[in-house]
Amino acid sequence: xxxxxxxxxxxxxxxxxxxxxxxxxxxxxxxxxxxxxxxxxxxxxxxxxxxxxxxxxxxxxxxxxxxxxxxxxxxxxxxxxxxxxxxxxxxxx
Length: 93
Prior knowledge:
Radius of gyration: 12 Å
Largest sheet: 4 strands, mixed
Number of domains: 1
Shape: globular
Order of helices and strands: EHEHEE
Structural class: alpha+beta
Strand content: 15-25%
C-alpha cells in the first residue's frame, strides 16, 4: 500500500494529528510505502535528531511505526524534504 503527503511548513498541530490518524489506518498494511514532501528540513535521519518539536514528533511516530527513510541525499537546498519511508521489515522487490 502506498500513500503520498505534502505538508506545509509549521502547519497546525491538529493537521499533523489528522495525518497521524490517517497513517494509523494505513499502517495496518504489512507493506507500507509512504512518499511525500513532509517539510521537516531540520531532521537528520542518519543521526536521528531534529531541531523542532513538530519534526521530533514526526520522527518518533515514524520510528514507533517501524518506518525507515530510504532517501539518503538532500533533495532541496541541502535538506531532505522529499522522502520515501518504508516499513522496516519490508524490502524492495
